[in-house]
Request: fold
Amino acid sequence: MPTYTLAQVAEHATTTSCWVIIRNKVYDDHPGGPSVIIGFAGQDATAAYVPIHSSDALDKNIAPEKHLGELDEASIRQLREAKKNTSKTRDELRVEEAVKNRPPLSRIINVQDMEETAIKLLPYKAMAYYASAADDSIAHIENARAFRRFFFHPRVMKPVSGCDTSTMMLGYNTSIPVYISGSALARLGHPLGEVNFTRGAYKTGIIQMVSSNSSLSYSQIAAARGTPDQPLFFQLYKHKNDETAAKRIKEVEALGYTAIFLTVDALIPSNRELDTRAPHYLEDFENQGRNPQRNSSDEEGEETNILGSAGQLIINNDVDMTWERTIPWMRKLTKLPIVIKGIQCVADAVLAAEAGCEGIVLSNHGGRQLDYSLPPMEVLYKLRKERPDVFAKTEVYIDGGIRRGSDVLKALCLGAKMVGLGRAFLYAQSAYGEAGVVHLVRMLKREIKFGMESLGVRSVDQLVPEMVERIDWQPAVAAKL
Reply:
């Protein structure tokens, strides 16, 4: 394989010839295309690339002829020395200080505590990606507020000793009715990334859904299972190329993944302004007290790049999926259960059930896609009122806005089989690694068990619609944001 010097790579720094160095290898392409990496053209992009891509992404997504060769030994030594002599950024220094002052895990007593702790110590880019929501964040805020419109009708004088929080999801046992929803780029928050989810899920007996856009390879995550039969569900962002999508499905099936969750609510990049502004914020933060040079594009009206970290992940998604074509196509490829993730209205819930899907997730992508999309809890309520037959035809799950065990129980009362949390687990593993994931599950289990006992039930199948009531006034408490 040819070798190159840093000087040779630096000669290719244009959109027409855009070479980059990643892990001491030289490429003439990037999975997201030249527009994504032009800022690193002719340079070493390893530090920016590695946290947001799996180890096999280059081999899977770049043509062999674009794998140009390797750096020569002198250049590798030069990069190593340059890294040693590079000063830490202001944001890196801020993170180091925050980690030093991180509270003991024992002081984290609810989901809100975990989130607040993580946000303080996350690198700004990671925080902006995890916390970002669409447009004005209305959908994101209302996802949580929706749960405040449902109140309980507890039953008393009911025996509740031996209360059991366990249940089943697609035939797999789980210790609580909560699963880890598919979340991308976990390594932005912690070096071990999705492995923290896998190991934490095994230790606590819950189920993990793995994102197509994980920062570790699907095989690395599968290898981290506590036992070969630990269930792993796969969140599929279907590629626009059917052959590429089919390879992905076959790969995870061969690795032992046990269900496919087809994501249908995030087909195109959305307007997540916190994520989009992250590079600008970091630039200004690093340049405090100095007058940075501005290029002439400010006057030329250059179009703003709003992709951010999130948009780059879904630019190759299939935007032409249909009930008539896509589900039968998947059935021919795999015998695994198919769940539709991203149902946002009753009509589509009915169509998914009629298509024979084993499950649906009522979700608006955590309020990260279409602002003003109805909160999933409200969709669940409408589904219960308008088409209760759907609950007998397919398993119904919900995610978005869940912050308490009481939120979980409200959803289960209305017929949800399971509840997914995404951001909460990202924050937990970012702040405390695997231990944070385990601690989060234990906190939720404590709250769920207390709520079940207070409602007068011993098992989750005893939670029924009559135990909740939707009210039209808002309680006078702070919004759960």
Q: What stands out?
A: The longest helix spans residues 434-455. The longest strand covers residues 338-343. The two ends are 53 Å apart (CA to CA).
